[in-house]
Task: inverse folding
């Protein structure tokens, strides 16, 4: 990979491609056509909404006279970054949650998606502010509100029978 692209590790290769085209004053549509790529598909790649295939990356590199594999490697680094982000978001930050909050279960064996309602209820009943903030970050405000609304609604119906 060319040294000039080393600093772009983790950034979608389409965004770097867009910068390279602008730097060379090359318009997207004619360039896409010149490498036998559909202009709309090419635009989706340039905007970072679509992955860059190896075959297309090689055509782009050849046309722009770049080292072979530059954009393929950038795509790989981008994919690695996205996968790491996805894996990091599969569980909340367990260093923030006290184990005593989940005294009746092994915290490492909690299925955070399937048991989300129980986790949210427990943290919002017994957790401190940091724990509530972490669970809100992990699940998102919309999910927290829907679970807490359902709890409040159920409690209301039980008390007013």
Result:
């Amino acid at each position: 990979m060319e040294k000039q692209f080393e600093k772009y590790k983790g950034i979608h290769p389409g965004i770097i491609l867009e910068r390279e085209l602008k730097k060379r004053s090359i318009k997207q549509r004619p360039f896409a056509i010149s490498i036998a790529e559909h202009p709309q598909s090419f635009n989706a790649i340039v905007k970072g909404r679509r992955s860059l295939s190896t075959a297309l990356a090689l055509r782009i590199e050849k046309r722009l006279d770049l080292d072979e594999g530059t954009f393929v490697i950038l795509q790989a680094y981008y994919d690695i970054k996205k996968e790491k982000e996805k894996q990091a978001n599969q569980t909340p930050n367990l260093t923030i949650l006290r184990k005593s909050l989940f005294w009746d279960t092994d915290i490492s064996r909690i299925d955070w998606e399937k048991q989300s309602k129980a986790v949210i209820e427990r943290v919002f009943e017994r957790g401190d502010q940091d724990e509530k903030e972490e669970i809100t970050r992990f699940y998102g405000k919309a999910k927290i509100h829907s679970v807490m609304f359902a709890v409040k609604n159920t409690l209301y119906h039980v008390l007013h029978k």
